[in-house]
Amino acid sequence: MDFDLPEDIAQHREKVREFALKEFTPELARKHDIEEKFPDSLRKAAFDNGIVDFSSPWKSLVAIEELCRVDPGLGISVTVPYFGAETIMLFGSDLLKEKYLARVNAGKAIMGLAVTEPGGGSDVAGLKTEAKKVDDRYILNGSKMFITNGSIADFFVMLVRTSKPDDKRHHGLSVMVVESRSKGFTANKLKGKLGVRATDTAELVLNNVEVPAENLVGEEGKGFYYIMTFFNISRIFVAAQGLGVAQGCLDRTLEILRNRKDEYRGMEEVNFAIAEMATRIEASRLLTYKAASYLFQFKPKPEITSMAKAYASETAVFCAEKALELTGLEGITGDLERYFRDAKILEIWEGTSEVEKLVISRFLTKEEKA
Ligand SMILES: Cc1cc2nc3c(=O)[nH]c(=O)nc-3n(C[C@H](O)[C@H](O)[C@H](O)COP(=O)(O)OP(=O)(O)OC[C@H]3O[C@@H](n4cnc5c(N)ncnc54)[C@H](O)[C@@H]3O)c2cc1C
Questions:
Q1: Owning domain of residue 51
Q2: Is residue 201 in contact with ligand 1, taking CB distance under 6 Å?
Q3: Of ligand 1's atoms, which has the minimum distance to the CA of residue 195?
């Protein structure tokens, strides 16, 4: 068993780190956080520099980790324009890949994934947005909530109800690609969210929006399975976000402590807290890389993925909290307060920690029964 990354992945990590340290200045990070403005020129720069390389999942993973380590808000903003792409990649027709994915892969379009509704995000099967088939098109009515890239994306991969459920609530759901320029489509940007304020978040309202039948992803009625497959991929990348945030908190804490001239630095409580942060980060990294290793070899283990997502995001929150405690006023008035707010979001999106624990326990009890 070799715990070192292969040379080309390790080199990519270094390249991404150099890019982030040069481009993500504290001033820029603060500006986009305060103004809640998506950094589009930074997205283009990251694309032009080959920072986000989706031809290699390992490169994507270490890139997300390093970018979030330097700044979570900016780091997530430059990697999230592709959010939902795997759904089309795995289940979409050649036409959809050519019509939509090609533009995203060329850095010419931004996409999003719309599942959550105002009534709640965890109960995916309970969603209410309706798509009625009329001739060669679907007519959509309903709304989506907290959608990343909501007011800037060109199109969304959207989960909608195409027929009433039978005995199973998650039946009758379908995925389709919905263009934001469609008649009857409105995006209302949400402001004032706790963290990752450089990312764009919006409510989407669909009022008789017409979607061509060819925009259906895969088969009608199988949408729930497609989205759960997607979450089993994306949760590994959220774990990488958590890992980056946690590592960034430790980096900044050590830097602040190094500059202190008093005895505080040598105190046992301070050293123990640092050791605890570093240990949890290392445990998160092992779990995340293990989940990724299974997935990238096409042998996904959803329970390990959920462990990685829950543990790494909780580690980010733990490290952000410890960092503030250890650095006092300097942390609270500096960049660490932003990490603290950003970290909490990771425990919520793409499955709250409670939902991840439900997935883990379901797998364990299923195995026990078997
Ligand atoms: C910044 C941001 C960006 C987002 N981007 C997107 C996006 O791009 N696309 C998208 O579709 N969604 C997005 N979301 C939505 C996100 O996925 C949901 O917030 C999340 O799934 C939780 O849903 P909810 O907030 O409606 O909480 P709810 O589902 O209402 O849950 C409320 C609380 O109850 C708990 N809970 C719920 N069900 C159970 C249960 N069965 N057992 C135990 N506890 C339970 C939850 O853990 C949570 O603590 C985003 C959210 C945020 C904050």
A1: 7-82
A2: yes
A3: 1
